[in-house]
Amino acid sequence: MNKLNRICVTSLLTNYRCLQQIRNSYNYPITFEKVVFPPDGKFQLPAMPPEPVYDEALGEVKKKLNRRMIEARGYEPIHTELIHKQFGLAAISGGLITGADFAYLQEHVNKLLKKNQFAVWRVDAPWLPRTRRLRGTKRGGGKGPIHHFETPVRAGRIILEVGGYILEAEARAILMTCLQRFPFPIEFVSDELLQRRRDVEVKIKEQNENKFDWDTMIKYNMQGCQYWLSPYDVIWKCKYK
To answer: Which residues are listed as membrane-spanning (predicted)?
Structure first.
């Protein structure tokens, strides 16, 4: 075999390998047979009332409450999964959502949704009152008047979902710009991402051979940790505040 033939054979093998790599890395087209649309037929986010609706006939009136920060502490035990198994926003740590935040999300998401795409809320409307004193008023005399209402969320709580005939890249383009709006950290999640996290947690729990964990430390009071641990640290093993 002369030099020219060797060069031709080498180039053909190289092209074949490149085509084989491209073929192996090709992804199957994404289909939407398992998409579950909202049963009420509403595909866009409804407006969230900035404050609760009171029925005067039943004697309901605005009432001041304490700060109730326990509503935003710890981990959300229920609303941590995506109902429609597609994409959404989840809280990384606890925080409070105001009516202005809801209005921004509604306007931004509804503007970018297409015909066969939908978005749904996964949190309640603002219900926790927040008081604020007017500027120039004297100190003392108890709480000031109610200024606005907020919605408390815990870590892991799903805030909203986006679904329908939508790809992950499209969902990220819609939701990633909303992350900077919140005063507490939130993240973009998908059903696949949440499933991978659950699998990792189960794997670590089953294969972990290190018995030095928070349960052991608290049980045997290692280095006097029971003195400086708060009740919340004991409940949530120093993972949440």
So the answer is: none
Confidence band, pLDDT 50/70/90 cuts, at residue 19: very low
Angle at 101 between CA 96 and CA 105, to 5 degrees: 130
Q: Report the distance separating Cα 119 and Cα 86, nearest Å.
A: 11
Mean pLDDT of 67-93: 93
CATH architecture of the region 36-132+142-208: Alpha-Beta Complex (3.90)
Q: What pTM did the predictor assign?
A: 0.82
Local confidence band at 75 (pLDDT 50, 70, 90 cut-offs): very high
Say if strands 87-91 and 158-164 run parallel, antiparallel, or are unpaired. antiparallel
Residue appearing with tokens 């969902």 = 171
Q: What are the b/e assignments for 57-81, b being 16+ CB within 10 Å?
A: eeeeeeeeeeeeeebbbbbbeebbb
Question: Could you give phi then psi for residue 43, rounded to 5 degrees?
Answer: -100, -15
What is the DSSP-derived secondary structure letter of residue 137? P
